[in-house]
Amino acid sequence: MMKKLSLCTLAVLAALPASMSAMAAETDSGMQLQQVLMLSRHNLRAPLAQGGSLLEQSSDKKWPQWDVPGGELTTRGGVLEVYMGKYTHDWLVQQGVIKANQCPDPNSVFVYANSLQRTVATAQYFVTGAFPGCDVSVTHQDAMGTMDPVFNPIISNGSPEFAKAAVEAMQQQAKQTPLQSAYNQLSAVSGYAASAECKGKEKCTLAATPNKFSIIKGKEPSVEGALKTGNALVDAFTLQYYQGFPADQVAWGKVTTPEQWQALSSIKSAYQNILFTTPAVAHDVAAPLVDYIRSQLIDQDNNSAPAVTIMVGHDSNIASLLASLKVKPYQLPDQYEQTPIGGQLVFERWHDKKNNKDLLKIEYVYQSTEQLRNAEDLSLSHPPKRVTLELSGCPTDSNGYCSWQDFTHVMDDALQGTAMQPHMATDTSDTPAPAATATPQSSTPSASAAAAAPHSQPNSQGTASRNNSPAAASAGRHDASQSNGGRQGQSTGAGGQGNKP
Predict the structure, then answer these.
(1) 42 is catalytic
(2) To 5 degrees, how large is the angle CA 390–CA 395–CA 398?
(3) Among candidates 388, 295, 310, which has minimal Cα distance to 350?
(4) Which residues contact 312 (CB under 8 A, 6 or more apart)?
(5) Cα separation of 335 and 372, whole Å?
(6) What distance in Å separates the CA atoms of residue 251 and residue 261, rounded to the nearest whole number?
(7) pLDDT of residue 482 exceeding 50
(8) 496, pLDDT greater than 70
(9) Contact 148, 476 (CB under 8 A)
(10) DSSP readout, 485-498?
């Protein structure tokens, strides 16, 4: 059974310009976009750590206040996601995947979010921008504030040998990542030497604080020390900038140049890379997500699968997935983050009509630093940035396309030796279902999203109930302390009236 919840009509949407007229899909090349799966990072949130936290312990300065609790999506983040949704709709119309000026068929769009406030609310705002007035539901498990196993990047391999090798790999990568200059700059900005963390200590510096890495089954990879502190500080500064805080409140007015942002952002990138992208760890923690994406793109018949699947998770999901699939190194122009707020990893299934074969293209679609800072509206004439990615096992042509068969092999390889490997069998009817499908109001369940994919069938233990404020539930913490929670699913409708997320 599913819960049906409504998204409010947002007042801010009244000021948005009308969507552009539909553009005909380009057919000269004989290529037709048939299916899209987008894995998005949630949009702008308040810092995860606030009052009495690591941030306050690591600076002698007063932190600016946010208007939402730590970890929750901000109203500005919602507006940014509406813009991204509106642009995505117009791009899909341009490519001939959906039709202009009408709601999509219920079986053609499937929206699935991790069950934290910031991810569910992001999905709601995206749907409002992409399909205004349409009854498109957001699926997530019932237990808000807990991590859905598909999106939970926790260690599943409990062997001591794995833990030892994983920690050694992280330690080695940390040694090969020069951060001392960045730590020194960060210490000067935050006043670290005069902070509570250094009270009573002689020669207390962030750069000299050792890192201690941890790998424990059932928990996320973690670190204590300079890397954790540095990541929290830079994350907070970055979010202040995106949120539009006055310049003198962004890092107390001490980070003003691109060179400074680049240096400090290297700490945040190192944190993500060291914890989530070393080969063994990425292979392990990304397996449930790889398995789910494989079920949607490969296991299902192309004619019955949703044409558009939108998934909303976290930067750790994207980073570990890219590493697990062995995506080649990439650069995102006009961005300091390597997995930006609100950015989408887009898997595109194209059909080559001339040669009668399917091809894959993977693109990173994201808003630039200044588009986020200025809350710029997006359109086909003023789009977000797009960067084509390449898989090591799926060579691309000059237009960024690679063989669908090679892509299938890449997905299979990413599951070899993991707990998800049995799901690759042809008969998946007995496979447990870790996520539930949405049941739109006054309509039947999305059969295409539930039939073939082993992870999108409703759990029989779910209970029916209603709640008009799903996004107001506890934000939770995207960390190893979160329980997997129950397997019940609920759907948040975007077509009715309700409280603002």
Answers:
(1) yes
(2) 80
(3) 388
(4) 40, 41, 42, 111, 112, 113, 114, 119, 120, 122, 123, 126
(5) 10
(6) 11
(7) no
(8) no
(9) no
(10) ----EEEEESSS--
Active-site residue flag, 352:
no
Stated length of the chain: 501
Task: Tell me which residue has tokens 């996601």.
Answer: 81
Burial class (CB in 10 A: 0-12, 13-18, 19+), 383: middle
User: Residue range 57-85: average pLDDT?
Assistant: 95
Q: What are 315-328's pLDDT values in tens digits?
A: 999 999 999 999 99
Strands 31-41 and 4-6: unpaired
Residue carrying the six token digits 């963390």: 197
pLDDT band at 124 (very low <50, low <70, confident <90, very high): very high
Residue 500: half-sphere exposure toward Cβ, Cα within 13 Å: 13
Contacts of residue 54, Cβ cutoff 8 Å, sequence gap at least 6: 228, 229, 232
Residue 137 near residue 4, CB atoms below 8 Å = yes
Lowest mean pLDDT among 23-32, 253-262, 289-298: 23-32
CA distances from 259 to 249, 264, 370, 401 (A): 19, 9, 15, 35
End-to-end Cα, the chain, rounded Å: 23
pTM of the model: 0.82
Say which amino acid occupies 175. K
CA distances from 319 to 135, 270, 315, 348 (A): 32, 11, 6, 19
pLDDT for res 303:
81
Beta bridge partners of 36: 308, 348
The Cα 437–Cα 458 span in angstroms is 6
The identity of residue 30, as a single letter, is G
Largest CA distance in the chain: 73
Question: Distance of CA 387 to CAs 101, 335, 343, 344, 467, Å?
Answer: 28, 12, 11, 11, 39
Task: Please list, in sequence order, all residues whose beta carbon lies within 8 angstroms of the beta carbon of residue 405, skipping any fewer than 6 positions away.
Answer: none
| pLDDT surpassing 70 at residue 432 | no
**Is the pLDDT score of 454 beyond 80?**
no
Cα separation of 90 and 63, whole Å? 40
What is the rounded distance in angstroms from the CA atom of residue 232 to the CA atom of residue 54? 8
Q: Among the options 148, 284, 299, 315, which is catalytic?
A: 315
The mean pLDDT of the chain is 83
For residues 322 and 334, give the distance between their C-alpha atoms in angstroms, rounded to a whole number: 20
Tokens of residue 21, six digits: 């007229």
Instruction: Identify whether the C-beta of residue 302 lies closer than 8 Å to the C-beta of residue 34.
Output: yes
- Interacting residues of 51 by C-beta distance below 8 A, sequence separation 6+: none
Residue 206 CA to residue 193 CA, distance in Å, equals: 8
Higher pLDDT, 426 or 225: 225
From residue 395, alpha-carbon distances to 238, 290, 319 in Å are 35, 19, 20
In 10 A of CB 27, how many CB atoms?
A: 10
The HSE-up count of residue 364 (CA atoms within 13 Å, CB side) is 27
- In whole angstroms, give the CA distance from residue 489 to residue 141: 4
